[in-house]
Write a structure and sequence with these properties.
This protein is an alpha/beta fold. Helices cover 23% and strands 27% of the residues. β7 (144-150), α3 (158-172) and β8 (179-183) form a beta-alpha-beta unit.
């Protein structure tokens, strides 16, 4: 079956994955298993033959003292030994260069800061942890790309994204479509000079590039995020344990970049859970758990190492189940736990001195509901049209595909569907990137049960199918590395 799937087109492989996924052999688990072989029907209300119903196999197991959703999905093996160099497949004369930069954008006068959304009480009375723009630049001699991470709830409008990319292109030659600008989605941040800092950070990273090695790995982690939806769609899950039957992407993906002497240059972390640990009564600026976690990694590694966070599909996932309070100390605890998990993955990732790089982006149109002025979460900038513009993007780093669904808040299973269909060994799927906040994109299941975001979203129930179809078309244009 594996060889057969590899010979199919992307859309065909996607449907075949749907058909066979329920029969996936469960991975080896911890012995404390609560229940097994439960099924979750994603397309419960979908009748279109091109998107047939599927089930997702999972178990409910005790992790971190609680019953949690444990995926049956298998990840590529991560060596059970320290990182090694593997240059046997590097073409003669090929080298990879990498550069990093971090620019502090924390307001010098917090009391004059402007709110960017989220829960920060205004005006802020101070700063708990600083806000940054972080940039990683890669150049393999044939292709160049840049990954930029903002400690902010969302990025900015499409015109401003285009301007940032043009300025970066002028200074570095990096193609605009190869520049990813993602937000961590912290709910305790504020507005700052993120745009100019991005141009500065990438330029500095470009000017400071040096010979490097790179590798990718991931592992399932538990104890930070889980589904935050009630099964019947009545609202947020606020019990003192996870919704064990709510779908969750437990994968934590890590990119390791190091120099010739094996010093870590950069760590890129991808995970899917809302950074809303810190509640609305807070008056201190913070990057919440991702910002704290990345600073913790940088502190532990030292030597100027940079840690970037890429937020996944967190529309229906959060920290409700595992946080003990809505406080800064809890954000610190979960941030340090994320750092622990990422560092544990990092130490086992093998690296190589050259990889294929590529990138492509595309603007697509997603179906929009009829304008309703009472819909509290309808972005005003997109109302009044039949469709909502969205940018999708694919970046390739060797056998890793980083896929950006857009600047909306996608439900986690939309990201899992992309991962299921991806022909790449590793796939990270992001939201909150490359554009303005567009609202939530629920799964068809979310629409079927009319959950809170399905009621408020500006997107129609057809949107998940359109988004996935367009995404798979773009993925089909990207070439995985030859085995």
């Amino acid at each position: 079956m594996t060889n057969y799937l590899k010979t199919r087109s992307i859309p065909t492989r996607f449907l075949l994955v749907f058909a066979v996924f329920g029969a996936t052999v469960l991975a080896t688990r911890e012995p404390d298993r609560v229940s097994t072989n439960r099924q979750y029907c994603l397309f419960a209300a979908e009748k279109d033959e091109t998107m047939k119903p599927k089930t997702r196999s999972y178990t409910v197991e005790k992790r971190c003292g609680m019953p949690v959703y444990v995926e049956a999905r298998r990840l590529p093996d991560l060596p059970d030994r320290p990182s090694q160099i593997n240059d046997k497949d590097v073409p003669p004369g090929k080298i990879l260069r990498a550069g990093t930069s971090r620019v502090d954008v924390t307001p010098s006068e917090p009391s004059k800061a402007t709110k960017s959304g989220g829960f920060l009480h205004m005006p802020p009375t101070g700063v708990h942890d600083r806000l940054y723009v972080r940039a990683l630049v890669l150049d393999n001699g044939q292709e160049r790309l840049a990954i930029i991470s903002w400690d902010k709830i969302n990025v900015c409008g499409f015109n401003e994204v285009a301007r940032i990319r043009r300025e970066i292109n002028k200074r570095t030659g990096i193609p605009p479509g190869n520049i990813l600008i993602g937000a961590t989605h912290t709910h305790a941040g504020c507005d700052a000079a993120f745009s100019e800092a991005s141009i500065k950070a990438v330029t500095q990273a470009w000017e400071g590039m040096k010979k490097a090695r790179i590798g990718v790995g991931s592992r399932m982690i538990y104890g930070i995020g889980a589904s935050r939806r009630m099964p019947d769609g009545t609202g947020l899950w606020n019990a003192n344990q996870p919704n064990p039957h709510g779908v969750m992407d437990n994968e934590c993906g890590v990119i390791r970049v190091e120099d010739e002497k094996r010093n870590i240059i950069a760590v890129v972390v991808n995970y899917s859970a809302h950074p809303s640990v810190i509640a609305g009564g807070n008056s201190l600026i913070s990057g919440d758990y991702p910002g704290i976690g990345m600073q913790e990694i940088e502190k532990r590694l030292g030597g100027g190492a940079l840690a970037l966070f890429l937020q996944g599909c967190a529309g229906d996932t959060g920290t409700q189940a595992f946080r003990k309070s809505r406080t800064i100390p809890e954000a610190e605890r979960l941030g340090k736990k994320l750092a622990d998990e990422a560092m544990g993955i990092l130490k086992n990732i093998d690296v190589t001195g050259w990889m294929e790089l590529d990138g492509k982006n595309r603007m697509i149109l997603l179906p929009q509901k009829k304008h309703d002025p009472t819909r509290r979460r309808s972005p005003k900038t997109i109302e009044g049209r039949n469709h909502i513009r969205d940018e999708i993007q694919a970046l390739i780093i060797g056998d890793l595909l980083i896929f950006v669904l857009g600047s909306m808040e996608p439900y986690v299973e939309i990201g899992l569907m992309i991962k299921d269909a991806s022909p790449f060994k590793h796939t990270f799927v992001l939201g909150y990137a490359n554009g303005p906040w567009l609202g939530y994109v629920p799964t068809p299941h979310g629409y079927a049960i009319n959950d809170p975001e399905a009621r408020q979203t500006p997107f129609t129930p057809e949107t998940p199918k359109v988004l996935i179809t367009e995404s798979l078309k773009l993925i089909g244009e990207m070439k995985p590395p030859k085995k």
